[in-house]
Amino acid sequence: MTLESISVENAAKAVRAYNATFGEMDRVLWYLSRASRRPRIEGRGGPVVEALVRTVKSWWGVQGVKAATKGCMAEALATMPWSPELFADVEGVPENAESFACGSVAALVSRTMSRGAHRREFSLASKVLHWLLPWRIPVCDSFVRGQLGVPSAWDHPAAYSAIARGLFSAVRRLEPQGPQWLCDLGPRSCLRGLDKYLWWSGGGDTKKTVVVRGPWRVVARLGLRPC
């Protein structure tokens, strides 16, 4: 698959199909993302941050992640440099977008390992950061690598750099055509829309991912009020 071949019509069709199946799960993850902003800006972790990491890992099938690693990553997130400006909606592609994404994912991986993780969890780091900063961080996993033709033999940093370049290039091409193809489910970022497109159009439907019933239970267990 080449990103240059994506049309807004086909992208919109895939996004609608994805939303119809996985939309409620996305709503929960976006709720957890926004609820975890204040703790991170204040340089602390907490149950909401931990729940976001745990839920991303559980729902989106990041394989081989040890239970302790999720706690290590939640702790590492508290040490990252956060500011309110990072969470603003972004029009267009931010300056130095690729280097910011690659640097952020690499930093989270390194900080997670320094807290006891035994391997480089690039996939989980990119997915967690994508949900925290959906206008700035692309998703990287074996499925995306395969869809974009990134060789499996490439090491994680090189593979993620290639994915980031390709996806931000697609954003630059698609965004001037308007946001209608993203439909109404937040976060309405082109990177989020492209992740849905790549997943759905590549066959990532319910044969590969279990639809979680009652996903708002994650929020209720935190003592928060579901939307």
Walk me through the structure:
The chain is an all-alpha fold and 227 residues long. The chain has one domain. It has ten helices and no strands. α1 packs across α9. The mean pLDDT is 90.
Structural class: mainly alpha
Tally of domains: 1
Q: How many angstroms does the end-to-end distance come to?
A: 37 Å
**What sequence of helices (H) and strands (E) makes up the elements?**
HHHHHHHHHH
Number of strands: 0
Strand fraction: under 5%
Major sheet details: none
| Total helical segments | 10
Radius of gyration: 16 Å
Q: Could you report the average pLDDT, rounded to the nearest whole number?
A: 90
The amount of helix comes to 55-70%
Q: Which residues form runs of ≥5 with pLDDT under 50?
A: none
- Quick one: overall form? globular
Element layout with pairings:
Layout: H1 8-35, H2 37-41, H3 47-59, H4 67-78, H5 97-114, H6 122-132, H7 142-148, H8 156-174, H9 190-201, H10 217-221
Helix pairs in contact: 1-3, 1-9, 3-4, 4-5, 5-6, 5-8
Brief overview:
By secondary structure, this protein is mostly helical.
